[in-house]
Model the fold of this input.
Amino acid sequence: MSHDLPQVIDLLRMVFGDSLDGDEHKLFGGTGLGGLNGLAYRMHPAAARLSNGFVWQAEGHIVGNATLLTTKTWDRYLVANVAVHPSYRRQGIARKLMDAITTSVRARGGRVILLQVVKDNQSALDLYRSLGYISIANMTTWYATASRVREIPAMLPGERAPNIELLSDRQWREAYELDTTHVKADLNWPEPLPPDAYRRGLWRRFGDMLNGRQNETWTTSDSRGRLTGLASIYGEWGRSYLLTLRVHPDCAGQLERPLLAKAIRRLHYLPRRNVRIDHPEADERTGTLLRESNFTVQRTLTHMRLDISR
Done:
């Protein structure tokens, strides 16, 4: 690891540098790991994300990498950081790295491999499809700096504003069901949304307070008290705020604007940080609202899945 990891990080910085978001730049950015010794490499947070998988060496240097990540589900694996040096492309290196990944997962008893690829990277898409991966859907990462997030009107003229309230403690299961109805499990990266994601018990609130985490969810409900939409803000020290916007299919087109407007207003009362939202590309209504709020597209990733035959 002490020999390979610095070269892997240099390779990833060169291949993916232009597409990294603000938080990823802190991992692969200018500070790098060049001055660390072997023990420090093993203790560095980057090691856990980059050390498992395969590299391709040529002329004494690492020119290809594919990282293999385990998940909380024993038979579910993730592939990340598939990169080949520009001078060594079109030589079958990426295919051989991916073959090694599949062989390794099969030997471990794995059943599912998931990966993300930039939507417009046609050569990579073709490679993965030729290996049996199928496309699930596209997720777009939208990004806005703290100084540029713009408040938008909660409603357009003639529209009636819904009542927006903090998520009730008793509605955490319903919030989970709404979220997973809006976004498929495999589109949550790196792990599917846990069933208790919206449960805000006393100990979790206490832990968030001790660790400087911000976690709140605002909701709308219909006349029967059923959740119809939610907007969440999650933040922790040193990282961008993460927004989540979910609307029940029956209410699509009615609640996206007021929920997003509420979340953006709340941000002005919180410590200033950049903001990110990962959202299905197919939801064009929300995309239009995000542009109105001064968000820009950081990248759109195609999520792909391989089911391994026994």
